[in-house]
Amino acid sequence: MKLLNKLTILLAMSLLTITNASSQCSVDNKYFDAGEQLSYDLYIKFAATIKGGYATLSTQNIKYAGNDAYKMTLISESQGFARKVFELSDTLACYTTKGILPLAYFKDAHEGGDYTKERLTYSYPGGNDVKIRAIRHKNGDFKFDETLSFSGCTYDLMSVLFYARTLNYPQMKIGTETKVNFVTGKSKVSMRIVYNGKEAVKANDDKKYNCLKLTLYIQDDAFDGGKEAMKVYITDDNNRMPVKLETKLKVGSTRAVLKSYKGVKHPVNIVK
Questions:
Q1: Spatial contact of 153 and 100, defined as CB atoms under 8 Å apart
Q2: Alpha-carbon distance 25 to 196, whole Å?
Q3: Structure confidence by residue, pLDDT tens digits, 43-95
Q4: What is the span of the domain harbouring residue 195?
Q5: Can you give the pTM of this predicted structure?
């Protein structure tokens, strides 16, 4: 209860300082809106790839400390035989302004017998400064409660996915990188969003979509060239709808392939 009360206070305080946030971190989002709901089949890869589970990605309008905001939620769950191989039951959620400026990030993850609960809350003291309070519990044990300071636009694993949908890809060449600050746990790192060109991707609704290929790298001194965090294939249209997402786990990886969608803002670029 004490932790919940602290988080509530932090959420309110972050909105009081949001007007001081640098305008350069807000974007003109014309690609998605509340009501978008995407459903995926989930595959888990270890020695072999096993289909077994689902994922959903949704966006909704909310009031965040009295202000209009978005809440984006990604739910992933393994099922059947795949769940016996690897238990996965994750809920990730981020809160952003309408300009995709991060406000908070929540993670509740059951993965392979471990349960991790993580909370990030953003505040904007002024100028380009960003402060993030990071709190983590694992398997019921307290791990850390720290405040991180950044200069410049900063994202978490959820908000960076939606930010990546708003970039100006028509002006990019293959290999173009967009760099942002990134927070993972209590670590301050950077992320490279690399544009890898175009590809037609077959989804699990028996349709092919013309897509833009992106790779997200966590830049860390421990990894030469960065550690791959995610591959994302988004439609080459004004929705930038994720059709396929490949995400690294501690052991193995997951792949989510689009099964159905509704609530998109624009016509979808389907291969004829």
A1: no
A2: 24
A3: 988 777 889 999 999 999 999 988 899 999 999 999 998 888 888 899 999 99
A4: 2-262
A5: 0.89
Q: In this structure, is residue 191 part of a structural domain? A: yes
Is residue 269 included in any domain, yes or no?
no
Q: Report if residue 272 sits inside a domain.
A: no
**Residues 213-272 pLDDT 10s:** 999 999 765 444 568 889 999 999 999 999 999 987 766 788 999 999 999 999 999 997
Domain count, the chain: 1
In which residue are the tokens 């992933």 written? 76
Query: Is residue 270 in a domain?
Result: no
